[in-house]
Amino acid sequence: MRKIIYYMAASLDGCIARDDGAVDWLPVPTGKQDYGYAAFLRRIDTLVFGRKTYEQALGFGEWPYGDRACYVLSRKWAGQRDARARFFGGNATALLRRLKRQPGRDIWLVGGSESAHPCFEAGLVDEIILTIIPTVLGGGRPLFLRNPQAQRLKLRRCRAYADGLVQLHYTMAG
Length: 174
Hints:
Blueprint: E1 4-11, E2 15-17, H1 37-43, E3 44-50, H2 51-58, E4 69-73, E5 86-88, H3 92-101, E6 106-110, H4 113-121, E7 127-133, E8 141-142, E9 153-160, E10 166-172
């Protein structure tokens, strides 16, 4: 069965964006140092975005995800599609359960805590790959929403980069 991976970058104080959604503090991967991004992209063939993250990705210029299947969680645009994605306004966990059962490579859960939260609560996330950026924002959009259930993780790999970034790769423990 396919895995759902929450692959994100966060500031040292646990933010994925400034309060206004800006991510200008994130380093841009280059050909020389991509922090494992190209290898990760080879693992996946489907992306499930939160609407805000999708809108932000559209502003990055050339679409970086090629012809991978993209779903956007959006009640506002439900049932529509554009050249890159299908918009889904129903239950996100039902969509992810369906996608997990289909043949293919892994699924990237892309987006903020609002989109990811129900997926964690439902036990659908298999891995977390988190890159910590050595920046303290002092506030912003959180990586995780408060969750009444503790979730145990198992560290698979930890990699430190020369520029101070640290990437943590966890699997869900149980």
